[in-house]
Amino acid sequence: MAKLKPQIPMPKRNVEERIQSFNEVALGYSEEEAISEASRCLQCKVPRCVEGCPVNIDIPAFILKIKEREFEKSLEIILEKNSLPAICGRVCPQENQCMGECILGIKSDPVNIGGLERFAADQKNRMKVRKKVSVAPPTGKKIAVVGSGPAGLTTAAELAKLGHSVTIFEALHEPGGVLMYGIPEFRLPKRIVKEEIEYVKSLGAKIETNVIVGKIITIDELFNSGYDAVFIGSGAGLPRFLGIPGEDLNGIYSANEFLIRVNMMKAYRFPEYDTPIKVGDKVIVIGGGNVAMDSARSALRLGGNVTVLYRRTEEFMPARREEVINAKEEGINFMFLASPIRFLGDEKGDIQKVECIRMELGEP
Question: Does residue 29 contact residue 36 with C-beta atoms inside 8 Å?
Fold first, then answer.
């Protein structure tokens, strides 16, 4: 049996450069790199990767077109099922979905399906390809979509392609939801999000910002004003706190507030933008998921010496593996099997210390 080729690494900015800015870290494949990676695909007769994709993209087909240098056709195949490929190619947890099902992954590295999706979505003719997407004749049906995050945008795009009249209602001043306020620029550039939103609008979907459904207008009022259906994709925007003493001390942020200030309100460019944010010399980030990695890597770029506290061991961290690797490369410290039990402050009410207990793994 021929020796299996390893995965083609995704080029990245060097560590010294990337920790000094919020520029995107992963640089994407070149044409030759993408073709080489696409050539690793076995073109399985029963592609498990498709079963692992939440929207069932014909993954072998779009990869084959990359291998054959038919890049526009590759993107056409993706757009049949996925309206946000440039976003999904960057931030979808492919290792737990399509790539986790790749047969190559049993004895070697799986095909970098996410990297190839990003390559197809980023190609220079991407807007030309998007203009080819067909929209059905008007059905006369009106649909309201509450929230313009990934769920809302995807729903609006698919409904618009079916010929329905779609309006998205967004509570914030910019559409995009977590794609805009939650995920940092170094992982998902905002120009990419805005470009994908423009594509959704080009299909006929309308977007109204600064509309809090339930306050400014109710669901009943939407139905009474002529909407035939309402999709609620309001997201999981409320923070979760630990419920331990000292949580109200100055200098303690929820990840929601911290990332909104940094990303959507561009605190990292203060005073050019008028949203300051305080980051101390020593920063503790509690948690082991993608939000924790985003917060830790953002705080590092803002000048903090950052330590991540996680109550389990590294192998149980829910964050994407590549984000943990990036964090370690950039100098983030990790303390495992540690869980905070209280925050300690000074007479001014400013956070000074975190008291933790040592954890042990129990039976699975």
Answer: no
Q: Where are the alpha helices (DSSP H) in 94-218?
A: 98-101, 113-122, 126-130, 150-161, 178-181, 190-202
Q: What is the 3-state secondary structure of 213-232?
A: ECCCECHHHHHHCCCCEEEE
**Does the model's pTM come out above 0.90?**
yes
Q: Are strands 229-232 and 206-208 parallel, antiparallel or unpaired?
A: unpaired
pLDDT, one tens digit per residue, over 265-313 is 777 776 777 777 878 889 999 999 999 999 999 999 999 999 999 999 9
Block residue for tokens 């983030």 = 332
* Alpha carbon distances (Å) from 266 to 96, 225, 275, 281, 342: 31, 37, 7, 20, 31
Domains detected in the chain = 15-130 (1.10.1060.10), 142-232 (3.50.50.60), 255-358 (3.50.50.60)
At 97, phi and psi to the nearest 5?
-125, -105
